[in-house]
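Students often ask why we bother encoding 3D structure as a string. The short answer is that it lets us treat folding as translation between two languages. Here is a chain of 336 residues written in the first language.
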Amino acid sequence: MLLEVRDLHVEFHTRDGVARAVNGVSYAVDEGETLAVLGESGSGKSVTAQAVMGILDTPPGRITHGEVLFQGRDLLTLKEDARRKVRGAEMAMIFQDALSSLNPVLTVGDQLGEMFTVHRGMSRKDARARAVELMDRVRIPAARERVGQYPHQFSGGMRQRIMIAMAMALEPALIIADEPTTALDVTVQAQVMELLAELQRELRMGLILITHDLGVVADVADRIAVMYAGRIVETAPVHDLYKAPAHPYTQGLLDSIPRLDQKGQDLYAIKGLPPSLMAIPSGCPFHPRCPRARDVCRTDVPPLYEVSETRRSACHFWRETVNKEPIPKEPADGRR
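And here it is in the second language, the structure alphabet:
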């Protein structure tokens, strides 16, 4: 297994209290596999990725429990010097806002070349030549002429390509892409996702794709992990999840996708708001917004039930969702 996250817990200590951002997250990614991590803003997707990469702001963030096994090594036990050697060379991250992630006072060539001077000990001349090769590889036109330009001189889509080039510069075994298509138009989104998928196939990298958009991952992901209130509430192969979700939250996300056959109809929206991470509800954290919630959901935290060999769902009544049974009109006690 390339990466295995086990029972990860992350807290943020603030003046207002303790925010439990990640509450027992476990997932795994193998070589050449794409895992999509889905959920609304504040569900813990990015915090989990930052903990994996070792770039969590500490303080106020703090990993209180868990393991992050990368190629058999627990990254959480490594000293910072050893961890720094892993970042960039063996695992890399693509951030969602390329303009704020790139240094505005350095040329893109210098920023790309730094990967080779720091990690490979190359001369600046050789590193610049490799920067041009990378820009060509991610299909930036006139790379040789543009390598000396600054981030603000590129469009949003081109800046995101530069971020991709930077992440895969040293051909790492794992890339984490955090909302890589945010603020891009639909056409550019498709181009960026196609480029990521192509490079992944070419280099046999593992890819964790963090997003809130189910439509983005339909054609590129192998498996999906759905997060809510810092927990994973469903994991499944991508086609199984789209065909028959096993958690009401996942069903709500799918129903929220605009469809061509619903022209003129109101768009569906999950009622209510995600809970405060300082006051996560008792029982199932989704129960205040769930149309299937019953008494047991308000008191008992559901484990990840085994739906099949490849699927898990943290819902006491997952069978009803999978089988598309009518939503009960009256709350009832008991568990199925």
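Translate back mentally: The two ends are 34 Å apart (CA to CA). Keep this in mind for the problem set.
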